[in-house]
Design goal:
The chain is α+β, with helices and mostly antiparallel strands and about 140 residues long. Helices cover about 40% and strands about 20% of the residues. It contains four helices and six strands, in the order E-E-E-H-H-E-H-H-E-E. One of its GO terms (biological process) is regulation of DNA-templated transcription.
Length: about 140
C-alpha cells in the first residue's frame, strides 16, 4: 500500500481542509481532524480509481522534503494518507442522464477534487450505506 502526503489547512471559522500536492485539484475537508483524514482517504481513493479507469498513470509519492520545500505549503501540516486501492476491477458503464444534471454532477465533482466516476460511485455508496438494508456491507449490496 502506498502512502501519499496530504496537507491539512485550517483557517479560523472553517473546516479542516486537506489537499494533495501529488494530485493537484484534489481537495476535501472535514469537521475535525479525524473526519478530515477519513475524507482525505476517500477523496484520494476515488480520484485514483478515476485515473485508473481513464488509463492515467498514478504518480510516485513525493518526499516530505520536496513537498515542504514549496513555500506555499509552509503553513500546512503534512500527514500520510494511505492509498487503499480498490480490490475490484473497475468496469466501464454507459448511463443516460439529463444534460443539466450531468453538468451539475461534473461541476460538483470538480469542485470537490473528484472525477465524474468517483463522484457517482461515492454518491451510490453513501446512498446504499444509508438505506436500511440488512444485506448491505460496507456500502455494497449483496445479492440475496
Amino acid at each position: 500500500m502506498q502512502n501519499f502526503i496530504g496537507l491539512i489547512h485550517k483557517d479560523p471559522d472553517s473546516d479542516y481542509g486537506v489537499s494533495f500536492p501529488d494530485f493537484p485539484g484534489v481537495a476535501t475537508a472535514g469537521t475535525d481532524l479525524d473526519d478530515a483524514r477519513r475524507m482525505a482517504e476517500e477523496a484520494l481513493a476515488f480520484h485514483v480509481e478515476g485515473m485508473i479507469e481513464d488509463g492515467e498513470a498514478i504518480p510516485e509519492p513525493s518526499s516530505l522534503e520536496a513537498i515542504m520545500s514549496d513555500p506555499e505549503n509552509g503553513d500546512a501540516v503534512a500527514v500520510l494518507i494511505p492509498l487503499r486501492t480498490p480490490a475490484k476491477k473497475a468496469v466501464r458503464v454507459n448511463i443516460t442522464l439529463a444534460e443539466d444534471l450531468l453538468r451539475a454532477i461534473d461541476a460538483h465533482a470538480e469542485a470537490h477534487g473528484l472525477t465524474r466516476s468517483g463522484f457517482l460511485a461515492r454518491a451510490a455508496e453513501r446512498q446504499m450505506m444509508s438505506d436500511d438494508n440488512p444485506n448491505n456491507i460496507r456500502g455494497y449490496a449483496l445479492s440475496a
